[in-house]
Amino acid sequence: MADDFHKSVQLGLKLSKRIYYGKDPSMKPPQTPSSMEKSSSEDQLLLPTSPMVYAVVSNPAMIDNPDIKSYQPYVHGRCKPPALIPLHMYGVEVEVDCYLDMAFVHLSATWRLHCVDAAQKCDCLLAIPMGEQGSVLGFEIDASGGSYLSQLVKVEDATDLDGSDKLEYGGFVKPNIFTLKIPKVEGGSKILVKAKWSQRLIYENGWFLLKLPFSFPVYVTPGGKISKKQKILLNVNSGTNAEVQCKAATHPLKELKRQVGKFGFLYEEEINTWSQTDFEFSYSVFFSDIHGGFLLHSPSSNNIDQREMFAFYLFPGETQNRKVFKKRVIFLVDISGSMKGAPIENVKKEVLAFLSTLNQDDLFNIIAFNGDSHLFSSSMELATHEVLKRVSEWISIKLLPEGETNLLLPMKQALEMVSHDSSSMAHIFLITDGAVENERDICNVVQDYCATKEKSPFLRVSTFGIGSYCNHFFLQTLAQIAKGHYDAAYDAGSIAPQLQRLCIVSSQVILSNVEVDGLSYVQSLTLYPSMIQDLSYGCPIIISGRYEGKLPESLMVRGTLADMSNFVTDLKIWKEKDIPLDKVFAKAQVDALTAKAWFMESKEVERQVAEISMQTGVLSEYTRMILFQTDAWNQGPDAITIQGSMGVGFGDLEKTAENLPPGVIVKAPDTTEFLVNAATGYCGKLLDRFCCMCFIQTLSKL
């Protein structure tokens, strides 16, 4: 899908050269640098790196300046798929609210359909790139074709709605780029978009990093002497009673307020061209040692769950002299046929890179699996220079993708290999791009091992999914059962950084088997996620929960340090009215409950997920987004547009069995589309070299 998007924008930029802006040079917008056109990585540049709106053009004859008629010769033929012409932006304001490790982004921006004749109408496409683990929360759109508002409904309710062109009006170009079609906008009119989404703050070396897609291509800046203002309002509530340190941001900020644990900044500027840089801002909560807190929040009267809410956090602190647990590491690497090419090469590179960071007294092994399992060694090996050299050679020979996927056998082998050792922490890293039929059996096997603590009290299973054909909720369930971490990469380019981060976060453990004393006194306790993970240098513990009853006046957190000594510290408890815990943890709650619903095959939990999804606006597997028209003059059923499934799904056994590479869509060739695409490519090259009349005369002879 991303490739089609690239090509459509590429064609749209070529067609936009037809637009005549008059004799005044100042009216012509900035042009794309010639270096971009010649760049070998041009396609990558054409994916949106900021909020964008595109004209969806199937008929090139409608392309014209709505203010100045150019009377260009008629263009025969149609664009299939439609060309996407980036629209000029006239203003952008963003408000970001950060709570704990989540950011909520509110965008308000205006675009103009500057490239379509004033007498014509065309659809427009809104594209919203989001940051880390972004989740769309809602839209309000005001355009000449109508005003629209988004809403989530249950899947079964969505099927009863009489929407036009179902499944055609929205979706993801990539997991972090959401698109939404705006129908029948008049040429020359403006489009006001208000969008909301959430994204997770990246935690690196003790700092929380907010990275907001805010790099606009130069060609969305309109020409002429018009006021162009960009604005970012940033509010941070760290959820702590500690001093917050800030790093320099990418854009000049003015401090508006500062309190203990809280602050606010403003960036506002009149500009000639829109921002060419993503907005980045980092802050750190300073603690000299391991420090925790416990926030309480009462639900609103309309909340479907009236139990009390809480958030528990535990930070590793600034002290770097605490020991990290000694490690026993096993990589389970999928080498089925679908892993050929970039996926397996990226995995091999990162596995070797991580093994090179192990201490020489750490132990490791690798089990590659397809239809069979292939062990580097029959027992765990010390991470010495000689063994690492030998495993590098083994990887280059043995990790050759072919065959099907069988996961249960290698998982049992790995569990048996790391059991019966309580002197170090066992890490099993599962890396796969496929789904298997016996996934619940695998979860049960791991659950049985974890229930028997004497076998391995420090067993952790972390999972990494590649592409959309693996069952990501199986991988999340497996990680939750064994107190591990889960991550995913949906394209080959993101495998290396995501897998590297997973390995670092999972392995740099300084406090294990974390428990909160006092929670046993309350009733109906639920944690999200269900198990408390370990505390590592690479990631603080931040979880939420609900309960009934009364908490004791004081709470304590305890765990085991790397030297096997016990750690105990008090937790500060306070009521936090300014942090909407139900919204901050909604995405984590939806994901955890969806994994539970899949594992238990529970319709009741599915209904619970749908209710939370509709109340908080977080997309789920059991809800669908609708976009309905709010104009008083159009309230009929045709005003409703249905969005398809926005979730990651539960894997695809058929495509796994066919060994299709991650993300490949098999489509039967269409003769008409082939001819139109061929003609478009040929004509596109000629358009750059001939005037319109010569071009038409040449085509008539052809």
From TrEMBL:
Sequence ranges assigned to domain VWFA in this UniProt record: 328-509
InterPro entries: VWF_A, vWFA_dom_sf
Annotated coiled-coil segments of the chain: none
PANTHER family the UniProt entry points to: INTER ALPHA-TRYPSIN INHIBITOR, HEAVY CHAIN-LIKE PROTEIN (PTHR46503:SF9), INTER-ALPHA-TRYPSIN INHIBITOR HEAVY CHAIN-LIKE PROTEIN (PTHR46503)
Gene3D superfamilies the UniProt entry points to: von Willebrand factor, type A domain
Pfam family, one: VWA_3
Residue numbers spanned by region Disordered: 21-42
SUPFAM superfamilies (alphabetical): vWA-like (SSF53300)
Domain of life: Eukaryota
Protein name: VWFA domain-containing protein
Organism: Chenopodium quinoa (Quinoa)
